[in-house]
TrEMBL record:
GO terms for molecular function: DNA-binding transcription factor activity, RNA polymerase II-specific; E-box binding; protein dimerization activity. The lineage of its organism: Eukaryota, Metazoa, Chordata, Craniata, Vertebrata. GO terms for cellular component: nucleus. Residues 29-53, 88-108 are annotated as: Disordered. This is BHLH domain-containing protein. It comes from Oncorhynchus mykiss (Rainbow trout). GO terms for biological process: axon development; positive regulation of transcription by RNA polymerase II; sensory organ development. The keyword Oxidoreductase does not apply. Residues 100-150 form the BHLH domain. It comes from the Eukaryota. Residues 96-108 have a biased composition (Basic residues). SUPFAM superfamilies: HLH, helix-loop-helix DNA-binding domain. The keyword Translocase does not apply.
Length: 196
DNA sequence: TAGGCCATCTGGTCCT
DNA sequence: AGGACCAGATGGCCTA
């Protein structure tokens, strides 16, 4: 059975029922510019470690020429300085094109992963949890639980006095959370899903 | 210090 | 040809 067939019985919702869809339209990617600095931290391009970056506003104009510019849909133009690209340009003969393609692919991959992480952040923001940040794995687990609980509520399967009755030993994910998955009813839940 | 988590690079594969 | 996606490798940061 495919996911599509499983979901085919879901009621129809209007766009207003999904505020997250609206959130995703916001220009969250912005137009930051990160410049790799020598001796940087663990992730030379990661905004997380801002101490190792400088804004392109202070960039030399000769370097400005070598900036790779990429357009991101609905979020304006993102300018990304890549010193590796400069080196690729300065490479020797036949290798140059290959290097440039690799560098461009790296930049695309970074943007792709940043988009993925943004999606994880959005998902985290709608999952009830205590203050500690869920890992990616835990985020997916909790999302699965949360969706399952909400859908059960939606179709009226869950009865007020019989909550968790169909999953003996399982309790609502809306309570306290902590990682450490366990299995319950064929589904792998973070341990926070249980009350000991 | 070990282990978990994460960001990035890289090469391969598939698709347009 | 070029872009998207994926998985493995690598190395940094953080915490128990």
């Amino acid at each position: 059975m495919t996911a599509k067939t499983e979901l085919s019985s879901w009621p129809d919702f209007s766009a207003e029922d999904f505020p997250l869809l609206e959130q995703s339209k916001l220009g969250h990617l912005g137009s930051r510019t990160w410049v790799k600095s020598p001796g940087g931290g663990q992730s030379p391009y990661s905004p997380r470690d801002t101490g190792h970056y400088a804004h392109s506003g202070s960039m030399d104009l000769s370097l400005e020429k070598l900036m790779s510019v990429s357009k991101l849909a609905d979020s304006g133009v993102r300018i990304e300085m890549d010193l590796d690209a400069v080196q690729a340009d300065q490479g020797e003969g036949g290798n140059r094109k290959q290097k440039r393609r690799r560098v461009a692919a790296n930049a695309r991959e970074r943007r792709r992963m940043h988009g993925l992480n943004k999606a994880f952040d959005t998902l985290r923001s709608v999952i009830p949890s205590n203050n500690n940040k869920l890992s990616k794995y835990d985020t997916l687990q909790m999302a699965q639980i949360y969706i399952q609980e909400l859908s059960e509520l939606l179709i009226g399967v869950v009865k007020p006095e019989g909550r968790g009755g169909s999953r003996s030993g399982c309790t609502s994910p809306l309570g306290s959370f902590s990682p450490e998955p366990r299995e319950c009813g064929g589904v792998f839940f973070p341990s926070s899903h249980f009350i000991d």
